[in-house]
Every structure is written in structure tokens, then in C-alpha cells.
Amino acid sequence: MKKLHFYTSCSEKIGLLFEGKQCIDIFIDRQSTDARLGTIYKGKVRNVDESIEAAFIDIGEKKVGFLPKSEVPFLGAKDKLSSYLTGGASIIVQVIKEAYQDKGPRLTANITLTGQQIIYLPKGNYVASSKKLSQQLTDKWKNFLTEQLSSTEGAILRTEIANAEIEQVLNELDDSRKRWKQLESEASRHKAPYFLFQYPIVPDQMLNQYKNETFLDITFDKRHTFAEMKRDFPTLADKMRIRKEAHQIAGKHVNQWITEAINPVVHKQDGITLTVEQTEALSVIDIDSSRFTSRQNKQETIFRINQHSIRYCVEEIRKRNISGIIIIDFLKMGKKEEAVIVKELKNALREDPVRTEVFGFTQLGFLEMTRKRERTGLLELLTNRASSREPVLSVETMGYQLERELLEWNRNTECILLALHPELHIFLKETLTDDVLSNIQIELYYYTDESVPYYQIIRSGSKELISLYMADNQEIVIDKLL
């Protein structure tokens, strides 16, 4: 049975999906992340390149967005993109693929507004359906919505519509139309580029992605978020509750789950070890079995190890959100066994909500597969490095970890004195929100020190204790952070 755990008290929101005792997916929502998946902007056309049938759109973020002609729903096959878009023109767009390395975000003009029963497409001009919906229900609701929608509108039927009443669907359609009119109205009042709307990644997008799963438990650390999600996801409400230990999830601190998730070496209890290396070109998962024990013969043991490793590989791919080309170095086996491994891997990947494709084994015995890139990978998000061989946590990551540490500090403590690296000090000043500051009920003092890797708690306790330290170290410039 699966469990979902959300941590939303900090500026950085975190969602962890568990199957049994294993964490199999992590969503992280940061204020500093540009052009996140699903974000809607009023963009400004930089230029149109007919040779690649695409436009480059300024959305006000670090990188210019890429809008292919295929993502402009009101253009026909023979229409030229430049006949509709010209340099300096404005257009409402949505991010469908986040920026990666030197590439900007991929955009669409076919905006989607997600509801409980339907996904509304104000410019869609078609009605599609979830593959999990029966043909009978698909036909019923397609016919009904086709009558309700105008010639320019569209919708995608979600699985939840199977148990919906007509009035519920009509109310949701009406709400979606109103939301779109509000976005259009707001866009008309501002010059491009302009940020219009964003679904929170945690918990909203994560719950939307996994709402059809069967959960044993869905926990929250914040009562306000808990109440909102019970209202917005009524079918999951009976599984939702507040955690007693807000910072502890499945026996570990949330900071520990995050840092362990990018460890390049993963040891499993049955003796199998995975080594995960991510580079700009591709990602490689190597399987080692030096500690695996079995009474079977060598070939049977190798095959069994490879079978066990399938689940571990899928867990790491999903948890780290690895995308692009993925190579898995299974232990060498025969062609017959390779075919079984390919089949079992494809079956294991069916639960992955992100599209994957398994190509099979190469002549050298490596398994090749690809995984669609949607959200920023965990390694890139936490370290800002392309290689995973020696991951070093970024200033942002350590800043959020310090924020979580301060939020859970003993309330009997009056003051804390911190030594901060100058870069971390700047980050904290820019990031700590009023909402978070109101929850940290401790006076914080600090001084900057370039020799400190990130931060160090120098003293904690009463105001007198901090005053004594200041008196004994007058050469250090100490200031108040909070």
C-alpha cells in the first residue's frame, strides 16, 4: 500500500511517495525554480523561425521559451506560424517541459486548466478521454460535453468523471470558464512578459498525479494545507491526517530523505548494490551483487539478481526523476533471460506516470531506455551540477535545510547564534517569507564567515549566553537575523 507525506511549513515544499518502506518519488516545490511545469504566462514573441516551425517567447524568466507550431492549436497544417505570430506580439502560453541545461522551457498555446472531472482546454477544439475510462462512459461524456462546449473549446475526460453527476461536471466546466476569463482579463491589463498562474507543485500537482492510486495514508505537517486538500480532493479526504511529528517522515527527518535520494551508491538489504551516475548526455545504473547470497547455480543466481534489481532501478529512476537516455548495466546473461528482463522492466514501469520507452539490450549487453523529461531532476535541483559522481549540495538546498532546522528548534531556546557563509546569508535574506518568520519564535543572531562551508550553530540558549559570547568576541561583527 502507498503512503503520501507532505511537508509544507517551510519555503520549500516537499512531497514524498512511499510504497511499503521505500520512497519511490519525491516532489520539491521551490520559490526560486523558474518556469515550472504547468505555469501560465503572457509571453512576448522574440522571433519566429519558419525553418524549424517554432517561435521563441520571452516569458520573463532566465531562459527564453520554445513554442513549436504543433503547440498552437488554432493553426492548420498548411498555415505558417509567422502569419499568426510576429516579433513583439503577445500570446498566453503554458510550460509543458521545464528548462534544462542551455535549453529554455517548452511551451504550448493550448492551455489546460485541471479540474476534478475534466481538464478544460479553452482553445482545444476537441474532446479526449483518459485511457482508464470505459468506452461506454467515454462515449457518454464525449457526446454530452461536445454539446456543451463552443467550437473553440475542448476538454479531456478524467477517470473521476465515471462517478460524477451531470450537475457536478457542468459546475466544474463553469468554474473553469470563469478562471480562464479571469486569466484573459489579467493578461489584458499587463504588458508581456507577465506571470499569470501556477498550480503549486506540492501538494496540488503531486496529488493530481497520484489521485487514482489506493493510499493507506496521506499525511500533512500544516493544518491549513490539510484543510485545503481535504476540500479540493474529496475522494482522498478519508485518508488524510495531520502528522504528530511534523519533521519526521517514516522514521527519518525530511532532510535525511532528501540528501539520501541523490547518493550515487545505494545498498539494498539483500546484498545488491546500485551505482547511479548522471551526466549531461545520459544516466547509467550499474548493478553489483558482491554481497548477494543464493544456493542456486551461477546462471540462475545472476538471473535472480537481475530480476530483483528491476524494482530497485525503477525506484531510483522515479525518486531521482531521471530523464533522457538511461543505460542499465545488468549482470551478463543469455538472450532468453534478457527477453524476460525487458518484459518485466516494462511491466514495472507501467506505474510510472512519466512516459518511458524500453528499447532492449545492445550487443554489448547494456539495456537502453528513455524517460520523458517534465520536471527538473532531483540531482540538478539539489546540487546545480550535471554530474552525480560527487554530488555537492547547493547553497539553496542548505538554506532550506537550515530553515527546516530552525522551525523545529526547541521553543525553550531564546536565542541562536549562527556562523553563515556570505552566499547563504544573502539567500536567507531573500528567501525567508513572513509566513515562515512568524513560525520561528527564536531570536537569531549571525556573523558571516567565508571559511564556514554553509552554516554552523555557534551558540544556543538564553540571551545572556549570546551576550557573553559577543563580549568575548568583540572583533566579530554580529548582527540580528530575526
UniProtKB/TrEMBL annotation:
Per UniProt, residues of the S1 motif domain are: 38-116
What SUPFAM superfamilies does the record point to?
Nucleic acid-binding proteins
Look up the domain of life of the source.
Answer: Bacteria
Which GO annotations describe the biological process of this protein? rRNA processing
Q: Name the SMART domains on file.
A: S1
One GO term of the cellular component aspect? cytoplasm
Coiled-coil regions listed in the entry: 159-186
List the cofactors.
Answer: Mg(2+)
Keywords of the record: Coiled coil, Hydrolase, Magnesium, Metal-binding, RNA-binding
Gene3D superfamilies, per the entry:
Nucleic acid-binding proteins
InterPro entries tied to this protein: NA-bd_OB-fold, RNA-bd_AU-1/RNase_E/G, RNase_E/G, S1_domain
A GO molecular function annotation here is: hydrolase activity
User: Known Pfam families for this protein?
Assistant: RNase_E_G, S1
- Please state what the protein is called: S1 RNA-binding domain-containing protein
